[in-house]
Amino acid sequence: MIPEHLAARMARRQLAHAYLVAGPARQELADTLAAAWVCTGPTPPCGQCAGCRKARQGIHPDILRADPEGEGLKAEAVRALRSDAYIRPNEAPRKVYLLEHAELLGVAGQNILLKLIEEGPAYACFLFLAPQPEALLPTIRSRCETLYAPGPEEARASEQGEVLAGLILSGASAQEGLPFLVALEKREREELRLILDDAAARLIAALPQRPDLLPVLDRLAPIRAACDYNISPGHLCGWLAAAL
């Protein structure tokens, strides 16, 4: 799922020229960004133009995948990439470099790319894919916009966390929240942990305007901690109902 703010920037052709994409679904998000850069349709990525079709098929000449096998680019290969970046795109408005295993880049290679990000041609765009942002040097991270691409479980947990936080913020009673809590009993403990983490983050963000939420957060903390132990989701949801 593409964040709303990012989708809006895509549609307006106002993407940054360098992104660090982390998280379980980083490849899917990076592929969407690459298609948006080479799209020639009215609203990128349109999915219909020749650029989008070639991007989807993995044959676009202006989308270059560096180290797709995850062997780790040597400094010589990074220098060759830097030279290639100064050759104009074949047919798209942009030339896109996907570094699919950026966490394997050495310090020398990252420093070569840093110079390219800072001083390279305006048409060159870069996507650094890594499991976690911390895998790259702070200097690279500071020159890129960082995006986190959650996996399906995390995305679903975020939606459920938003609902739970909404129930708490609205002052809903346990009875009013019962249908939601009963549905949560079918989740695994790991997913319940993610839901509680997301809800807690939303409540913490609201604390400056709602200091009354502090006792609620105190009641949620032991339930969140219990998710790490062999306690059934049904018992955890019952405990959660009592805490609302």
Keywords:
about 240 residues; alpha/beta; 5-stranded parallel beta sheet
Short description:
53% of the residues lie in helices and 10% in strands. With 244 residues, it is α/β, with parallel strands linked by helices.
Overview of this structure, please?
- Strands 2-3-4-1-5 form a five-stranded parallel beta sheet.
- It is 53% helix and 10% strand.
- Helix 2 packs antiparallel against helix 3 (50-57) and helix 4 (75-85) runs parallel beside helix 5.
- The protein is of the alpha/beta class and 244 residues long.
- Helix 4 links the parallel strand 2 and strand 3.
User: Gyration radius, to the nearest Å?
Assistant: 22 Å
Ends distance: 30 Å
Write out the strand line-up for the largest beta sheet, numbering strands in chain order. Answer: 2-3-4-1-5
Low-confidence stretches: none
- Strand coverage percent: 5-15%
Sheet with the most strands? 5 strands, parallel
Task: Determine the number of helices (DSSP H or I, runs of at least 4 residues).
Answer: 11
The helical percent reads 40-55%
What is the N-to-C succession of helices and strands? HEHHEHEHEHEHHHHH
pLDDT averaged residue by residue: 90
In total, how many beta strands? 5
- Which class of secondary structure composition applies to the elements? alpha/beta
What does the overall shape look like?
elongated
